[in-house]
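Researcher: I need the complex structure. Ligand is 4'-deoxy-4'-aminopyridoxal-5'-phosphate. Inputs:
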Amino acid sequence: LNRRLAEFGTTIFAEMSALALRTGSINLGQGFPDADGPEEVREAAVRALRDGRGNQYPPGPGVPELRTAVAAHQERFYGHLGLAYDPDTEVLVTAGATEAIAASLLALLEPGDEVIALEPYYDSYAACIAMAGGRRVPVTLHADPESATYRLDLDELRDAVTDDTRLILLNTPHNPTGTVLTRAELTAIAELAVERNLLVITDEVYEHLVFEGEHLPLASFPGMRDRTVTIGSAGKTFSFTGWKVGWVTAAPELVSAVRSAKQFLTFVSAGPFQYAVAEALALPDDYYTGLRDDLRAKRDILATGLADAGFQVFRPSGTYFITTDIRPLGETDGFAFCRALPERAGVVAIPNAVFYDHKDRGAPYVRFAFCKSVDLLEEAAGRLKRL
Ligand code: PMP
Ligand code: GLN
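Model: Output:
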């Protein structure tokens, strides 16, 4: 393994899911729903397979049906904010958001460029920045025990920008903290990007999973339309994380750059699923609000269970995840705690320290996923209470 990748090892999600299997534990580690997405969307995939749509290499940018559906989705949910994309030149289908992140960084970074990312950050960010030869510059979202939320210090963000900063890699709603950046924060980020002439890659895969407040795409802020690469994913929005269908929306030059990298990573993304996701994106508003309301109720069940078990709960405004502080349980090391938890309680969780460069800042925090059945969440809460 080369020096660029040596520090990354095996992803925490693979490690912890294997541990869950080995110990027969309830897996609240890796974020995937335990119920598949809508039947009609599965049927759409079967139809595409049977009818021979997408069984051979689809077009590089994605099948036109899906690009059109992505553009229509952006217009439907964000048109009132002035956001619209041309399906032919401003949409690119990717193999999940993961490839969108990798291809965007590989396409847009020169070796040595600095990338600012909000810490704790999703694990693939650091590895992809490294593969692209960039240098990551973490800006910490600070845990605020008083309000039980995370806060972005805008002065720290501004101070992190140097002459070598090429781009900001943003994530809202934010994994693992569940933070949804506010209009004021996004306005400040947009002003900074314009002032310092930065690009922004914004990972908005949890755009529909916002329980309080509202998701505002960064691209809709003044001056951002043409300097922002926005990333979405069918995995989260339709509960098909195994299909690996994602997309990028951006100005034509940026999409074309990302496509240059994508064509040598996967060339194209799996065909039949693209047709099915095109149908999924057109589901009525009820579908989207139903998914959100269901997950909000699950968040509340797990949050209550974790608080009853003695954790300090940082209440997430969005995503699949609750971050907790384990210090009220007399624990300080999230890694040790998560490695022991399957034996002690039959539950698997993720130590947030893996998402930090400043490991000490992340040490006492542990993430639990609530995209699971109510029965499973209640069983997990019961087990944790016996800790
Ligand atoms: N970004 C974030 C913040 C995520 O949490 C995930 C996966 N859970 C991804 C990207 C990857 O998405 P995909 O499965 O579509 O590759
Ligand atoms: N994004 C999911 C999570 O944060 C996991 C995806 C993966 O396993 N790479 O849990």
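Model: Summary of the prediction. The radius of gyration is 20 Å.
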